[in-house]
């Protein structure tokens, strides 16, 4: 149990000291960094982490697949409780933040005033900072979710979650669920989701979230993933699973599934969402989306193989191609609302298949890299077994 003491208007002393796990380079274990004192500027908050979940981008970073400003504290999917507040700190809806609030928060910190923020692209702010992505520096040591506490800065969208929402459901909202909401918003700007045939490639946390939201919107959804357990989860939430590795006359091939949908009157895929990052899946999305359809690319968040595109085919089919990276504050709010009403019937808590103590962060990341679970959890309050 941590105790928090205010020292003056800005300084906060936490006992025992907050600890962040610092990553330095591929192949090297994390180092523990203690931060006994925190200075909260106006609009900031200190949140004690209840649970963090490991995003695929965290795995890409520790493997060296993507550039990172080391040393850094990884982690940007988490839920926690507010234990100290700077003057004027607010939630995403503009109401005042309160001590004891159970919250999730955006992966991005935005100024709200630059040209991009004024255009609604707060996730691409000119002075952007991101939780779990910034080099550790004095004054913001607690900058990622793989820590006992996170210093949440002004310009962050903070959303309160209910006490009954499981931590395993709430934590991914800060990245996967809100990004899924942004992906469907991008599609819905161009086509009506109700009654549409939607293809989702990749049944990770984002892909399954996209599928669940699209089904709720009235769409018919196909989910393609090579993992049988993830395909089964997709089936349980109402999607039709496809095995991209199926051969020959298998009924699980995409072509066979599309033929069955055509017999029901669904002539073509109207929305295709790529959530895996695999070049073959990107190729599939471009090839399958129908006339006037939308291809939404969200899985390519790390460098990968290039994919060739036939521009004439895109033009003649009137296809819209859009990339989605992160999300806006209202999309995080709506993502939480979706989770609050849907997690029980969909059993979304089952997507976090294992949880480790913070001290076992390297083991947790290794387990996440196997792909055995959709998400792996990290709980600072859990003791090693």
TrEMBL record:
Keywords per UniProt: Metal-binding, NAD, Oxidoreductase, Zinc
Ranges of residues in domain Alcohol dehydrogenase-like C-terminal: 206-340
E.C. number: 1.1.1.1
Cofactor requirement: Zn(2+)
Domain annotation Alcohol dehydrogenase-like N-terminal: ranges: 42-156
GO cellular component assignments: cytoplasm
One Pfam family hit: ADH_zinc_N
Record bears the keyword Cell membrane: no
GO-annotated molecular function: alcohol dehydrogenase (NAD+) activity; zinc ion binding
Family: Belongs to the zinc-containing alcohol dehydrogenase family.
NCBIfam families associated with the record: HpnZ_proposed
Protein name, as recorded: alcohol dehydrogenase
